């Protein structure tokens, strides 16, 4: 499993922690305060801050029941690796200089897993400017993990239930309102399956045309993570590639594969 670390440069540890926390919340990701997941766990490491993704503790219980301890360990690592790889992609767009190094080895005390490499943020540049269209919303408000998500007509109830279960196990929030941060569900053609996507915080630039590259970078990184993390948490997924249109990640049931 990779480690994501933030190196402060001229920032104090406290200042860097604030910058990383702000970036995570703008991306729509929860922070695991005190090391209790789900969310991103911030670990001070000398002049750096290492980041680890902590899935729900229920993920291993569910995976063990389905396939034994080895399957549970693999599921946890796949989920964490997927989200941590996304962090390495999206943090630079949020003003943190992220790079991967392969010279760090060790064990993650929080998860007991091997850590063969490190993704290091070597400094911080200008903060992304909060979207004026969402200035009334608090930047420190975390995603709502337990809120009932808005569901478009045409998505089967069993698909909605499966998405909510896998997202909760992986520790990933579902958007609690239209435009909110987290996983979004959209109706597909034919009806039944759900098209999945990721919404950053509405405060992130690009929500209504401002600095669209920042928002797009976060969305692209998290789309890639969803395909791995949610599948590892038990969701039946497939990439749908219609001619002339962007690929779409779909949550489906066994009957949809026929």
Structural descriptors:
alpha+beta; globular; 21% strand; 258 residues; 2 domains; 5-stranded mixed beta sheet; 4-stranded antiparallel beta sheet
Describe the fold and architecture.
With 258 residues, the chain is α+β, with helices and mostly antiparallel strands. It folds into two domains: 2-124, no CATH class; 142-257, no CATH class. Helices cover 32% and strands 21% of the residues. It has five helices and nine strands. It has helices at residues 13-27, 58-67, 69-90, 157-170, 212-232; strands spanning 2-7, 39-45, 48-54, 96-101, 117-124, 182-187, 194-199, 237-240, 248-251. The strands form two sheets. Strands 2-3-1-5-4 form a five-stranded mixed sheet. Strands 6-7-9-8 form a four-stranded antiparallel sheet. A hairpin with a 7-residue loop joins strand 8 (237-240) and strand 9. Helix 2 (58-67) crosses helix 3 (69-90). The longest helix is centred in the N-terminal third of the chain and has 22 residues, at 69-90.
Classify the helix fraction into a percent range: 25-40%
In the predicted model, the low-confidence regions spanning at least 5 consecutive residues are: 103-117, 132-146
Strand order of the largest sheet: 2-3-1-5-4
**Sheet with the most strands, sense and barrel status:** 5 strands, mixed
Order of helices and strands: EHEEHHEEHEEHEE
Global structural class: alpha+beta
Please tally the β strands and state the result.
9
Q: Report the end-to-end length measured between terminal Cα atoms.
A: 35 Å
Count of spatially separate domains: 2
Cα-based radius of gyration, to the nearest Å:
18 Å
The tally of helices reads: 5
Shape: globular
What percentage of the residues does DSSP assign to strands (E)?
Answer: 15-25%
């Amino acid at each position: 499993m990779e480690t994501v670390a933030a190196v402060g440069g001229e920032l104090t540890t406290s200042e860097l922690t604030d910058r990383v926390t702000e970036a995570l919340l703008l991306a729509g990701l929860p922070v695991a305060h005190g090391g209790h997941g789900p969310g991103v766990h911030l670990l001070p490491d000398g002049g750096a801050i290492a980041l680890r993704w902590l899935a729900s503790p229920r993920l291993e219980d569910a995976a063990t029941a389905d396939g034994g301890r080895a399957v549970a360990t693999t599921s946890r690592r796949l989920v964490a690796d997927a989200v941590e790889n996304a962090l390495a992609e999206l943090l630079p767009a949020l003003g943190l200089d992220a790079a991967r190094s392969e010279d760090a080895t060790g064990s993650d005390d929080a998860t007991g897993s091997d850590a063969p490499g490190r993704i290091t943020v070597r400094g911080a540049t200008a903060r992304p400017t909060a979207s004026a269209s969402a200035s009334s919303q608090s930047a420190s408000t975390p995603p709502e993990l337990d809120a009932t998500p808005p569901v478009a007509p045409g998505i089967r109830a069993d698909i909605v239930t499966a998405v909510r279960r896998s997202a909760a196990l992986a520790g990933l929030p579902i958007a609690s309102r239209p435009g909110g941060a987290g996983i979004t569900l959209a109706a597909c053609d034919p009806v039944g399956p759900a098209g999945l996507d990721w919404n950053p915080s509405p405060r992130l630039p690009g929500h209504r045309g401002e600095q669209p590259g920042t928002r797009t970078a976060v969305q692209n990184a998290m789309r890639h993570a969803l395909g791995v993390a949610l599948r590892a948490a038990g969701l039946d997924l497939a990439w749908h590639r219609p001619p002339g249109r962007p690929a779409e990640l779909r949550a489906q049931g066994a009957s949809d594969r026929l």
